[in-house]
Amino acid sequence: MTATSWFKTPSGARSLLAFLITLLTLPAFAQTQKPIYPTLPYNFALFPTATGAFGDFNGDGRIDEATPNGINAMGLRLNNGPASSPTLTSIPLSCSPQFVLATDLNNDNKIDLAFSCSGAYVGVMLGNGDGTFQTASYYPVPSSALSGITAVDLNGDGYLDIAVVADTVNVGVLLNQGVGKPGSLSSPKLYPAPSGVSLSTIDAGDFNGDGKQDIIAGYTQIAIYYGNGDGTLNTPQLTTASTGTAFVVGDFNRDGLTDVAYLGPNPQTPTSSLQVLLGDSSGTLTNGSSLALDPTVKYLYIVPFQNTNASNITNLALIGNVTTIALNDGAGGLTLGESYGVSNFAIPETADNGITNLYFQSNVESIVLAGNGNGTFQGPRATLLGSNYQAVADLNADGLTDVLSTDESGNLIVALGRGDGSFTVVSRTQVSPNPFAGPTTVGDFNGDGKEDVLFFPGVTPSGNAQVEFLAGNGNGTFQPIVNELQIPVPGVGATVVGDFNGDGNLDIVYTTPSSRAYPYETLYYLAGNGAGNFAAPVELAQQIPNSLVSPILIADLNGDGILDIIWDNSTLLGNGDGTFNRQPLSIAGNAISLSDLNGDGKPDLVVYNSGPTGVSLYAGNGDGTFQTTPFYTPDLTGTFPYGASPLASIGDVNADGHPDLLLQSFPYGQPGVLAVFLGDGTGSFVLENTYPLISTGFSMLARLNAQAHSLPGDHTLDYVYTAGGATISLLNQLNPAPTAPAPLPSKTTLGASSTNAAPGQQLTLTATVTGASPTTGTVSFITNGKALGTAAITNGTAALATSFAAAGTYPVIANYPGDANNTPSSSNAVSIVVAPVNSTTTLSVSAGSAGTNQQLTFTASVTGLNPTGKVTFASSTATLGTASLINGVATLPFAFTATGSFAVTATYAGDVANLGSASTPVTVTVAAPDYTITASPSSATIKAGQSATTTLTVTPVGGYTGTVKFSCGTLPTGVGCTFAPSSVTPSSGAATSTLTITTTAPTTAFLRRLSVPLQGVAWASLLFLAFSPRRTRGLNRRFARAMLFTLLLAAGLFTFSGCSSSSPSNPVTNPGTPAGAQTITVTTADSSGNLSHAINFQVTVQ
Question: Which segment of the chain is annotated as a signal peptide (predicted)?
Fold first, then answer.
């Protein structure tokens, strides 16, 4: 199948490409002799890279590759088959490609190439279908740089569009012009990232199931741009992912919606994790499976794959220092599968047999991890231990090599060899509260014939190093710490074990690590007392300034039966009492191993020089000195990279009875190489093979195959090495093929969310199964011979939700039937006590006072475990009624027919899950129908002639529903009284009326006569009009009418003067409302005439 854009990884991860991993590849593949250690097949045609693209460019059915090829060029690798070199071509471009995408942009069924390019261009090369491509077209994007690129149909026209990350803060969309100009892109539109979020990787899918394609992008966080189906995108929404450096998309739960898997921190522990976010129609991704990962592996890539071309379940390969498979149960649930000693960027491809293989990048080709079609692969097994601090020994006396390790949480990890090259972690026991993964040393320190452990967890606050002793039980388990020794040194580095003082007890020689405060290492000696304790440390030697410190090597160099030491280019000959004589080694270089390599019975020395000679072998003289001229110098030209001092192992690996030399390079920051030199017993060696390895930190020969001869007769030793917290095994292929190991004892423990429950109450039973990790299968839960149910084991636990119908005590047992690696086991019984729970009943009433025959509502609330049944309501004298519980609430309508005070209680009878209970009494006062009247305000101060108002409130009591009429009593002089309205009916609650009081202001009237002069004028005017000359009377009629009017006026004035006097007459007076306080009595009367109340309203008149 064609690799899609989800295999793109962030640019920050590309530093891993410097690690040119060639895992277990046999360079001299043409030789016919079977190599001693296994190799993986390789494929010349493919060279997977995180920035390249894959597809069948020439239609021959093989997967070809296009990758950035330096400055302004695209490199093509046309696949000629796995055993043939590819056809390499380079296409010149106008810019340097960054990320390449293989897809069909013009719908001609031929693979095209789209790529992000320097200068912020998107380039497109349309394919011709024969392995060639048309001249590139370039589309500028308004930004300074582009990174991730993907193809997706955003507008539903059937042509793939291009989306790209621009300047890490935008998503650019370039729509395909489709019909008419297929494969040509439109001008880009930019969509900004959420504030503060940087983007690098981009992909697409339908995350909300609306049939429209969406864009997902991430780096610091993951954001989704939901598509509108017309080529435009909505404002991005951040997901709950706390990081987006490595993510892939796919339908992991097979619900038709696109999901997301990403590497991030574990929300429950301070480790890394694989998290799944599930697509949801709501538009918000929901949390799916979360799988804790070993943080020491440092996973960088996620590669989705399906086991076969017929499978629709997507598993995930997690690639870091090693590769770990995360198995999908088809519903999105993930569990850790096997880990393998392969690394670097990989792609999945389906082989001719329909099974998916993983192809890993190597030097100039790919390494093939062949699939078995079930989520497992054919490759070197890796056991994840969580630390590079590892030691090997036979911890359970079965003749097989086991591994000890400590992690950053202070746990001692025991992994037992299974006899087939694999290890099984059987225990993780915290032995130190210090968050430090310190070294461990194995030996029988208490003389009981069982391997014990010395653990060096770090330095105390006082600056002393700690030494903790754990006695072994001989079965891979250890007793709690008994002895803890503090030694006045700034830590413990390398250690060796031996009896240096001849007392039959194991002692320790160790170095202190160098630091800024202690620039040079120091060698110390601790004498053991045979009981797991040690004497005070004795300083043996200090590092020669600027010398190259070697491992601590021990052997009897002078044949006196006493162990001697080689360290720091010095020889320390033992005196047999724990003291030593130091003398120069007189051989330039770093001593890395010590053993008899030439068959003379004297230890010889393997020395490393950083110069061109590399490794040399020097013969021992048997007196503590060595020849200064090497007797053998391995030829490492072209096969052994220089760097750090290599690791050396000596033992017989080809069953000829002679010691062989295995040199493992340890170059800084690069993969290692294992070179196997076969010895003839006389000091001559021949290179058997070289085996590229993952970058390593520890290695040694071991016995891993249960079908090999028991030690010390095993002359076909296996090899074990570490890489990033993992232990990787190489089985010697000269041994018989290993058989499936016998199952290891498992242990099942049972817990319950609660050991007390009510009938029908749901609780969760959780069984934890330990043994050969991981345990698989199901667990059945049983009580009194009756099955409660079964649950699948996920990450070592199985949980079952259940309930018990009846009261009683139920002993529950969890049974694990075992699997291929684990024996059956049963838990101890956990007793579940089932009994009704206490309930509580509370009572409330709609009103605390009422009238006779007024309906009230009593409400009883019952708490407990989903209480059911009836509640009885009663007063002290009678039962009021019963009501059924609905969702824990029972209500009773009731009206009292008599007056009085009634204490009402609610009693719950209980049910199968709940005990009965009664409420505290609620008092209800029942009175005859009546009403009360109030005035607000109750007084007012005004001036005479003004008005005062007050609001009269009539409140019904006891269910009163009549009509109340208002009237005023005897009113003071000049006071008026009105009501608006004049009556009220408070049938549904209080009713009001406005009372208005009016007052009268005092008044006085006076009458006056005209004055004498005025009276005279009036009489004179009248006489003039009467006796005017004749001719005057002859004036025209208009003038006559005017004269007549004047005459009448004069007559009026005369009349007025006759009714008046020239002096005032006696006054006429109205006193108005008297000043002072006036009490207004308001009387109310029921329309029936049975009730009457009065209230006073005081008015003060000023």
Answer: 1-30
Q: Which of 104-108, 456-460, 497-501, 930-934 has the lowest mean pLDDT?
A: 456-460
Question: Which helix H or strand E contains 1023, and what residues bound it?
Answer: helix 1012-1026
Name, in order, each residue with C-beta under 8 angstroms of 881's C-beta and a sequence gap of 6 or more: 872, 873, 892, 894
Burial of 1073 (0-12, 13-18, 19+ CB in 10 A): buried
Q: What is the CATH number of domain 840-927?
A: 2.60.40.10
- Per-residue pLDDT band for 554 (boundaries 50, 70, 90) equals very high
Element containing residue 1031 per DSSP (H, E) = helix 1030-1033
Q: What are the tens digits of pLDDT across the range 354-400?
A: 999 999 987 667 889 999 999 999 999 898 887 767 889 999 999 99
Domain range annotation of the chain: 43-238, 747-829, 840-927, 930-1003+1073-1101, 1007-1066
The pTM for the full model equals: 0.72
Structurally, what CATH architecture does the domain formed by 930-1003+1073-1101 represent? Sandwich (2.60)
Q: Quickly name the fold that domain 747-829 has.
A: Immunoglobulin-like (2.60.40)
How far apart CA 402 and CA 700 sit, in angstroms, is 12
- Cα 237–Cα 239–Cα 240 angle in degrees, nearest 5: 145
At CB < 8 A and 24+ separation, what contacts does 1084-1090 make? Answer: 1084/931, 1084/933, 1084/954, 1084/964, 1084/965, 1084/966, 1084/967, 1085/964, 1085/965, 1085/967, 1086/931, 1086/962, 1086/963, 1086/964, 1087/962, 1087/963, 1087/964, 1087/965, 1087/983, 1088/962
Give the count of beta carbons closer than 10 Å to the beta carbon of residue 1077: 11
Task: State the Cα–Cα distance between residues 530 and 535, nearest whole angstrom.
Answer: 11
- At 684, the amino acid letter reads S
* pLDDT attached to residue 645: 75
- In which band, very low, low, confident or very high, does the pLDDT at 1066 lie, cut at 50, 70 and 90? low
Ramachandran class of 581: left when φ > 0, alpha when ψ lies in -120 to 50, beta otherwise? beta
Q: Which residue, 661, 557, 652, is CA-closest to 604?
A: 557
Rounded distance, CA 495 to CA 511, Å? 7
Instruction: DSSP letter for 352, please.
Output: T
Q: What residue has token string 């995350």?
A: 207
The pair of structure tokens assigned to 765 is 């039973």
Query: Residue 677 has which token pair?
Result: 């030199």
488 burial class (0-12, 13-18, 19+ CB within 10 angstroms)? exposed
Q: How far is the C-alpha of 79 from the C-alpha of 228, rounded, in Å?
A: 40
Tokens describing residue 670: 């690069």
With a cut of 80, say whether residue 563 has pLDDT above it. yes
**CATH code for 43-238?**
2.130.10.130
When computed from its CA atoms, the radius of gyration of the chain, rounded to whole angstroms, is 51
Q: Show the CA angle centred on residue 551, arms to residues 548 and 552, nearest 5°.
A: 125
Give the Cα separation of 875 and 358 in Å (integer). 81
Which tens digit of pLDDT belongs to each residue from 723-773?
878 899 999 999 999 998 888 889 999 999 999 999 999 999 999 998 877
DSSP state of 736: P
Number of residues that this document lists for the chain: 1102
Q: Tokens representing 480? A: 């709690």
pLDDT at 25: 34
Mean per-residue pLDDT for 60-88?
91
Asked whether 64 and 51 are in contact (CB, 8 A), the reply is no
d(CA 74, CA 92): 6
CB atoms within 10 A of CB 456: 24
Q: Which two tokens stand for residue 1004?
A: 């006085």
Task: Kindly write down the DSSP assignment for every residue of 465-523, as one continuous string.
Answer: EEEEEE-B-SSS-BPPP-EEEEESSS----EEEE-SSSSSS-EEEEEEPP-SSS-S-EE
